[in-house]
Amino acid sequence: MLVSIKASDQIEIMNFYILAVWMTLLLTLTGGSNIRCKRNDNEAWSYRGKRNGPSTWGNTYPDCYHRMQSPINIKYADVKKDSNLKHLQFKNYHECVRSAEVTNNGHTAKITPDDGVSRTICVNGDTYSLDHLHLHWGSGPDAGAEHLFDNKGYAMEAHFVHINKRGAIAVVGVLYQEAPSNNTGFQPISEVLCDIKFKGNTARLRSRLDLSKLLPRLPMQFFRYNGSLTTPGCTEGVIWSVAQNVNRIGSHQLKELRSLFSVTGNGNRARRNCHLQDNYRPKQLLSGRKVTLSTCIR
């Protein structure tokens, strides 16, 4: 028996199929970043898990519920210039890293120099030594960096983590916007990403890495505030220096980062929807903290 379908119903059915095709295409282009990786639910914490995502971190790591947390939205209208806050002093950052371990720990790509060179910054008269740098990136061009400038997001953020002799932490944050051409300074990292495809993979740098090329031109202006680590346990007392100028990262280089996995490589089916993307913590409340801007002396 033939069943006639009203013209209005035909249009509704057609619209449904168009929407379904469009959503499928969208998920394909974005890597399906909004689809949950079930294996992440078994981790102590994750960025997209239902039971262990950012909104739940404080259940296991109480500091994550405290008031001096990072990252934050830096609102230009509320920032005050501090004449006593001079440019950051980077020591030995121009000396290329000749040896470093590059690791996929399931949450980020981490680069730990081990060439014996002391690379330091001076913060409030104290010397902090570079421990490592790691990266946060998104599945698209407007999200991935952890800090926001007037609620504007960027594609990536690099954190240069420094520690002093007492164990205090100072982090330099640099935001990156997506660009058509590659950042040549990032290439030594890009060329080993294929070797750390899965969680637990490690590799060695094959080319010298000039960290100064990952920073905006020195001396750089920066925002200063007191915050925390942006991953559990969210330790507070961290001195943040966030570069005001935004650097650039190539679209192809971002694609390579987005191809990493947040899980071990045990079978195609087991790692479905588990690309390491959108590994950034949502912005935290400022809670009355002051954000100041350095004066730049050339």
Could you walk me through the main structural features you see in this protein, from its secondary elements to its overall organization?
The structure is a single chain. The protein has helices spanning 7-29, 57-60, 187-190, 251-258, and strands at residues 73-74, 80-81, 89-91, 100-104, 109-113, 120-123, 126-137, 148-149, 156-163, 169-179, 202-204, 222-228, 236-243, 247-250, 292-293. With 298 residues, it is of the alpha+beta class. The strands form two sheets. Strands 2, 3, 4, 5, 6, 7, 9, 10, 11, 12, 13, 14 and 15 form a 13-stranded mixed beta sheet that branches. A two-stranded parallel ribbon has the order 1-8. Mean pLDDT is 89; it is low at 1-5 and 8-33.
Précis, in short:
With 298 residues, the protein is an alpha+beta fold.
Q: Looking at the structure, what is the overall shape?
A: globular
Question: What's the total helix number?
Answer: 4
Q: What share of the residues lie within helices?
A: 10-25%
Count of extended strands = 15
**Termini distance?**
84 Å
Largest beta sheet, briefly? 13 strands, mixed
Mean pLDDT: 89
Rg over CA atoms, rounded to whole Å, is: 21 Å
Query: Can you write the helix and strand succession as a string?
Result: HHEEEEEEEEEEHEEEEHE
Q: What structural class results from the helix and strand content?
A: alpha+beta
Low-confidence stretches: 1-5, 8-33
| Beta-strand content estimate | 25-35%
Catalytic activity: hydrogencarbonate + H(+) = CO2 + H2O
EC number: 4.2.1.1
GO molecular function, one term: zinc ion binding
Protein name: carbonic anhydrase
